[in-house]
């Protein structure tokens, strides 16, 4: 079912499965409208029951088939031991896990090399002039 949000004018659709579940719940609760939420603005758009039944004419047959159908089975059978809660790691294993993560090499930045006293002596000193000296030189 194609719809357009009455607030933001965004077009969106309702799937047949969603329509069927909406009609069934409206029938059980004796409701006359369904609130379809806009995917963009998340506001509820009211859809009348008559309109939904118009777009899904044989909804009663589809609801009976859905109720009588077996639940969908998993493709692969999962052992019950996997589904149960696993044991927490022992302290020895936790330490081993921490050590292995600590051993991973990381990129460390080398600190800037500090100048040695010999480098400071060899550096050329710039002449410093004060404000008063510069004024006297210009004149």
Write up this protein.
The chain has 139 residues and is an alpha+beta fold. The chain has a domain at 2-65. Helices cover 44% and strands 12% of the residues. It is built from seven helices and four strands; from the N terminus they run ββαββαααααα. It has helices at 16-29, 49-55, 59-68, 80-83, 91-102, 117-122, 131-138, and strands at 2-4, 11-13, 33-37, 44-48. A two-stranded antiparallel sheet has the order 1-2. Strands 3-4 form a two-stranded antiparallel ribbon. α1 (16-29) packs across α3 (59-68).
Layout: helices, strands, pairs:
Elements: E1 2-4, E2 11-13, H1 16-29, E3 33-37, E4 44-48, H2 49-55, H3 59-68, H4 80-83, H5 91-102, H6 117-122, H7 131-138
Antiparallel strand pairs: 1-2, 3-4
Helix pairs in contact: 1-3
């Amino acid at each position: 079912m194609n719809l357009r949000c009455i607030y933001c004018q965004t077009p969106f659709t309702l799937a047949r499965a969603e329509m069927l579940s909406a009609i069934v719940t409206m029938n059980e609760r004796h409701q006359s409208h369904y609130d379809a939420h806009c995917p963009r603005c998340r506001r509820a758009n009211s859809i009348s029951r008559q309109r939904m039944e118009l777009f899904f004419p044989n909804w009663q047959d589809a609801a009976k088939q859905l109720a009588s159908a077996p639940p969908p089975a998993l493709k692969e059978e999962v052992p019950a031991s996997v589904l149960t809660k696993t044991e927490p790691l022992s302290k020895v294993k936790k330490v081993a896990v921490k050590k292995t993560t600590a051993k991973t090499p990381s990129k460390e930045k080398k600190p800037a090399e500090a100048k040695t006293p010999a480098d400071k002596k060899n550096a050329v000193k710039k002449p410093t002039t004060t404000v008063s000296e510069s004024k006297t030189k210009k004149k």
